[in-house]
């Protein structure tokens, strides 16, 4: 007959089955601590991811834009500073009227990589795909006072760029098919360092396809969008990057007023998370210490039959580990569900819970539980067999007790 080997895990599981009521409070404390701590972390990560996604949708993924760059793409790539690079060509400006004082907007195109970096998005329709097609930002249509819908044919007056800040004196009449209405992008890309009078540094609010032909004799401006291969200091950028450039930085681009609102909230979340972590740790310490105190006789009997202090700590530590492994995954799963529902109700984006973050939360939760249980486990290991077996509390009470004699009979009744 095969005998099952008695291991620490088997002993811990048997103890958990036999002491369900005693371990319920400890398991509840571990579950709630992991739930609230993970929920706060997931909520913060999800809100941060939502803000980053909004920034990238508005500004793009590029780190730097070289304005009217004279260097070729090959020369920039040879420096090793960029891992992705796209080109934006600015052909000139277009107007809805040939009058000299008519409003104009920049007209150009993105190549495939530049479009992948900047994320120009259509509110209606689609992006231009063939020559003679055009897509306009909604704000550009408003400035041009162009009353047209997707699919309409529009006549525009094109002023080709003949050099830096030099446009053709007479416009060229062009007819386009309006294929899409775009979300705001050009004004977001034009951020600082450059004055509004430098027209050749502007970004196009009217987009053509890559098949659009360049006007003969014109000299389009060429902006390069760079995604850096590594972070650069300002001195390195001034040394490596020639000419004018825009620097796009997620931290710098945040609105100061928004930061004033967000930072106190993040600070409050951090304080609450640390408070919950400390309170849950103390709760686990007290609950585990109370459980070990109630089992002092069991500890004494184990010490009496030869169990060492290390074995005592390992046996009861295994119980704490099993509790953590049972409670933490369930708490993390429930926190994901709760945060997802909360974000959906508040319309604050979607849950951001990458596997690396969940695994880190699980490992950190188990580590915190084991650290909290280590304090009472060290005390339990120091108890001697005789001290654990005898009822110390009753012995101390008996020593303090005093016998008070009383008369139980009357002499005259004898």
Automatic annotation (TrEMBL):
- On whether Cytoplasm is a keyword of this UniProt record, the answer is no
| Residue stretches spanning the membrane | 265-293, 320-343, 355-377
**Cellular component, GO annotation:** plasma membrane
Which terms does the record give in the GO molecular function aspect?
transmembrane transporter activity
Q: Where is the ABC3 transporter permease C-terminal domain?
A: 271-385
| The keyword Transmembrane helix is assigned to this record | yes
Q: Which Pfam families match?
A: FtsX
By what name is this protein known?
A: ABC transporter permease
Q: Which organism is it from?
A: Candidatus Alectryocaccomicrobium excrementavium
């Amino acid at each position: 007959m095969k005998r099952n080997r008695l291991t620490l895990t088997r002993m811990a599981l048997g103890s958990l089955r036999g002491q369900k009521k005693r371990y319920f409070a400890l398991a509840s404390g571990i579950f709630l601590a992991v739930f609230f701590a993970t929920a706060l972390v997931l909520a913060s990560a999800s809100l941060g991811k939502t803000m980053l996604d909004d920034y990238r949708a508005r500004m793009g993924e590029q780190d730097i834009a070289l304005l009217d760059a004279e260097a070729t793409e090959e020369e920039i790539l040879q420096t090793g500073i960029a891992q992705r690079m796209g080109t934006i060509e600015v052909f000139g400006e277009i107007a809805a009227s040939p009058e000299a004082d008519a409003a104009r907007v920049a007209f150009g195109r993105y190549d495939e990589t530049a479009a992948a970096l900047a994320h120009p998005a259509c509110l209606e329709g689609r992006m231009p795909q063939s020559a003679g097609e055009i897509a306009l930002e909604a704000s550009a249509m408003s400035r041009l006072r162009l009353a047209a819908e997707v699919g309409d044919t529009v006549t525009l007056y094109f002023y080709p760029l003949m050099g830096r800040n030099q446009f053709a004196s007479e416009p060229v009449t062009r007819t386009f098919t309006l294929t899409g209405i775009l979300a705001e992008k050009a004004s977001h890309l034009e951020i600082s360092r450059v004055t509004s009078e430098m027209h050749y540094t502007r970004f196009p609010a009217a987009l053509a396809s890559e098949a659009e032909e360049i006007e003969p004799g014109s000299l389009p401006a060429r902006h390069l969008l760079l995604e850096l291969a590594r972070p650069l200091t300002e001195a390195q950028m001034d040394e490596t990057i020639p000419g004018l450039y825009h620097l796009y930085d997620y931290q710098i681009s945040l609105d100061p007023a928004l930061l004033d609102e967000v930072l106190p909230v993040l600070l409050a979340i951090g304080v609450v998370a640390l408070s919950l972590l400390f309170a849950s740790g103390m709760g686990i310490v007290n609950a585990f210490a109370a459980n070990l105190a109630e089992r002092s006789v069991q500890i004494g009997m184990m010490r009496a039959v030869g169990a060492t202090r290390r074995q005592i700590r390992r046996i009861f530590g295994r119980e704490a580990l099993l509790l953590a492994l049972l409670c933490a995954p369930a708490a993390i799963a429930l926190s994901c569900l709760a945060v997802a529902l909360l974000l959906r109700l508040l319309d604050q984006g979607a849950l951001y819970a990458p596997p690396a973050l969940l695994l880190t939360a699980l490992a950190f939760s188990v580590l915190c539980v084991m650290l909290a249980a280590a304090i009472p486990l060290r005390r339990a290991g120091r108890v001697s067999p005789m001290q654990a077996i005898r009822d110390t509390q009753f012995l101390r009470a008996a020593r303090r007790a005093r016998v008070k004699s009383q008369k139980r009979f009357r002499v005259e009744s004898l």
